Amino acid sequence: MSKLSNVWVFSDTSSRLTEVISGGLELGENVKAIVLTEDEAKEAFAYGANEVFLIKSDDSSNIIENYSKTIANVIQTEGKSLVLMPGTRRCKSLASLLSIELEAGLVTEVSEISIENNNINCKHMVYGGLANGLETIKSEASIAVIASGTFSNAQKDESKVGEVKKVDFVENKNSIKCIEKTAKEGSSVDLNKAKNIVAIGRGIAKQEDISLAEELCKAMDAELGCSRPIAEGEKWMEHERYIGISSVMAKPEIYVAIGISGQIQHMVGAKDSQTIIAINKDKNAPIFDYADYGIVGDLYTVLPAVTKALKG
């Protein structure tokens, strides 16, 4: 596979910066990171970026979409190039605006990228994860919004430093204005990095019963996740713990699915687990088509027994 001369990377969260830089190093000869803080600039060099551009802004609201004009101005100084972003909500929104500014081809939910004849080929999910599509971007500038886990994280080397190039902020013609801020109730968990995951679904009857899954997590040193109805329907858990096509794409060593039916929208986010274990009272549940091991039974009976066995 050939490489591009330049790959630009940007992330709205520091935790995903390492992955897009890793992708840039794999696909390009020169990786150029665009960041918003001094700390991110240091991180970018440490993870292997060749050049780092720091946008100086007085916009304390930090609305990511407002940076599209500034980022486009920086990238337009180059020739054929690729822009990599993580598949966060804000980066997806920014990517759509940036594609207009740059007249660039854009593909989201990208799981694989290759360079052939100076064109960018992107494999991505279509039809809600039921199939994969292959798109070829031929425009001068290209944008790929990658699904989590597409590239392994780059190795950090604190000895790598460089001179940060500062860029003046250019306000968009129609900027988004922040009227009010409300603190978000969320979690700092990053299921993309979890070694083991226990995930719960509609089979959990009451919010208090989540404690059964939490006990299993403790016994097997796992993080707790969930299906979409638990996070967005019942709102029993944070969005950061929702595994599925529009959220976390997990790749743990062990994935335990409890009371989860196994619809494709969920399994797209769990199918890359090394080992999938399903617990469901419905023997015909689709989850068993994906599972390496399955237990047909009532989770209220099975979970305490499994937890007890693991604790010895």
Automatic annotation (TrEMBL):
Keyword annotations of the record: Electron transport, FAD, Flavoprotein, Transport
PROSITE patterns linked to this entry: ETF_ALPHA
Pfam families with a match to the protein in the record: ETF (PF01012), ETF_alpha (PF00766)
Source superkingdom: Bacteria
Essential cofactor(s): FAD
SUPFAM superfamilies per the UniProt record, alphabetical: Adenine nucleotide alpha hydrolases-like (SSF52402), DHS-like NAD/FAD-binding domain (SSF52467)
GO biological process: fatty acid beta-oxidation using acyl-CoA dehydrogenase
Molecular function as annotated in GO: electron transfer activity; flavin adenine dinucleotide binding
Family statement drawn from the similarity comment of this UniProt entry: Belongs to the ETF alpha-subunit/FixB family.
PANTHER family found in the cross-reference section: ELECTRON TRANSFER FLAVOPROTEIN ALPHA (PTHR43153), PROTEIN FIXB-RELATED (PTHR43153:SF5)
Descriptive protein name: Electron transfer flavoprotein subunit alpha
